[in-house]
Specification:
Blueprint lengths: L1 H84 L8 H10 L5 H15 L3 H14 L3 H17 L3 H14 L6 H14 L3 H14 L4 H13 L1
Helix pairs in contact: 3-4, 4-5, 5-6, 5-7, 6-7, 7-8, 8-9
């Protein structure tokens, strides 16, 4: 009987110990779950902050690019303005240059950019650089008026290089192919200048006479009259 009672006591004690262990284990698991939940919350908070920072960085970069773009455009305009204040070489007619820089706005965007780059090269006296640009613009010209203007400036570029043959060819092409071009009178006038430079005054006079006959109301006509007097 005593042994039976002792066994019951031992079983009861053992059961209590096991229950206590299970309880402690459950508490530890709950604690671990709580820690994990807190860690997830921390990670989610960090992730939100990171996304917020990334968004602000993107806005900052966008603003920086816009600012840099605006500064670059302003710088280009300043350089362009300064370039206009410097007289181009003597071979480049200033009035026609300024007029055709405005005229370029009616060209398609790509062609206009090429043409304006050529004009900038002529202003700087970089005649060799201007020629391929003018050739490209000429190939893209979609009307006789536009082609005639571009060809005239090709003649000016050759003129600046003292390439008399190239200049005469370009001026003659303007007059021959595009007689209604606004630059046809100027082409005849400059053609006569090249011929005088070559010593062919007789043909130079013929060019001036043709100018007076075909374009009597042009601004170049009054100049042609004075040149004819000088060549007598």
């Amino acid at each position: 009987m005593g042994r039976f009672v002792l066994a019951i006591i031992l079983f009861s004690v053992s059961g209590c110990v096991s229950t206590q262990k299970v309880s402690r284990l459950e508490r530890r698991m709950e604690d671990l779950s709580q820690i994990q939940r807190e860690q997830r919350e921390d990670f989610e908070a960090l992730d939100s902050q990171l996304k917020l920072i990334e968004g602000r960085l993107e806005q900052l970069e966008l603003g920086t690019h816009k600012t840099m773009g605006a500064d670059l455009n302003a710088l280009k305009q300043d350089v362009s303005s300064l370039r206009r204040r410097v007289p181009p070489p003597a071979a480049v007619p200033v009035a026609e240059l300024e007029e055709d820089e405005v005229w370029a706005n009616q060209l398609p965007a790509e062609t206009a950019q090429i043409f304006m780059d050529a004009m900038a090269a002529l202003r700087d006296g970089r005649f060799e650089d201007a020629l391929p640009l003018l050739q490209a613009a000429s190939e893209q010209a979609d009307s006789a008026e536009k082609a005639g203007v571009v060809l005239f400036w090709q003649g000016v570029a050759y003129d600046g290089l003292r390439d008399n043959k190239g200049a005469l060819r370009s001026y003659a092409e303007v007059v021959g192919r595009f007689p209604k071009s606004k630059r046809a009178p100027a082409s005849l006038l400059r053609q006569s200048d090249v011929l005088v430079r070559l010593g062919d005054k007789a043909t130079a006079r013929d060019s001036l006479k043709k100018l007076l006959k075909d374009y009597p109301k042009s601004p170049e006509a009054s100049v042609a009259k004075e040149r004819l007097k000088e060549l007598k």
